[in-house]
Amino acid sequence: MNLKRLWYVITVAEEAHFGRAAARLRISQPSLSQQIKTAESELGVRLFDRDAAGVKLTAAGRELVGDGESLLAGAQRLADRVASASATISGRLNISYSRSAAHLGIGELVDEFRRDHPQVAIHTSTAWTTRNLEQLDREEVDIAFVRPPLEDDRPLLDLGGDDLAVAVPSDHDLVGRQPIDPAWLSGEPVVFWPREQGPGYHDSILGQVWRTDPPRVTLEEPEAELILEAVARGRGITVLDRRRALRMKPVGVAILAFRPPAPNVRLGVTWRPGDRSAAVQAFVDLCRRATTAA
């Protein structure tokens, strides 16, 4: 029995009269009677008792209508969701990338969103986590890629991450001693980046690698390129995402893997709590699907 025929049965039950039900459904009474007979034939039961006063449900009919109403409501909700998903989304979406995460596929996510929603005007920028969160709070951006953990309870979707690695001058004593034990880095001069750019990300790296023995930071630089160039000049060692380090490695730098299980860092995407704009929700849904498929 199809959903349309179920709808006819429920309408007859509600009206308790074939004539009124037919008028409500805008079909002829003979056609409605035939549809009900077909439903009874398909199910092999009588659904209505008929008399001069009208019709009433049999026990089998009551069972069908009881569950049938929720089935029709569920089918309508599904149809509404499908229609909503296929609706054209337009407007503007401001997205800020994380400077440290270009190697983790965030550009590909945005490209996929562009293909799916060509009517949305997308503006992108790049900054570090703290700056991205500030822009989000000031409503300068709608979506921000960040490096967790964050220091508040704003919405955050984990998009995966990468193992950390050690970058050292190519003539350093640690070259050839892979995999690296974090304890071997104690006392080494370290080139790192300022904590205010991403406190949670910064502290996560230090906590996993140096634990309770803080590193001897002898130089701070704001960008990974500058940090690696300083390592190449012999100013110290550093720790950063392994794939990013391998992509950016300058001449004179060796990238060394940690002993398993390697420390790792994560990437997340966040948005303003309560922002229900269609473009934002569509982008968040895309990110959720990407994490499920990974």
CATH class annotation of the largest domain: Alpha Beta
Q: What is the level-2 CATH architecture name of the largest domain?
A: 3-Layer(aba) Sandwich
State which percent range the strand residues make up.
15-25%
The shape, in one word, is: elongated
Helix content: 40-55%
Detailed description of the structure:
It is a single chain. Helices cover 43% and strands 23% of the residues. The chain is of the alpha/beta class and 294 residues long. The chain has three domains: 3-86, Winged helix-like DNA-binding domain superfamily/Winged helix DNA-binding domain (Arc Repressor Mutant, subunit A), CATH 1.10.10; 91-158 and 267-293, Periplasmic binding protein-like II (D-Maltodextrin-Binding Protein, domain 2, 3-Layer(aba) Sandwich), CATH 3.40.190.10; 160-265, 3-Layer(aba) Sandwich (D-Maltodextrin-Binding Protein, domain 2), CATH 3.40.190.10. α7 (199-209) links the parallel β7 (189-192) and β8 (216-220). The longest helix has 28 residues, at 59-86.
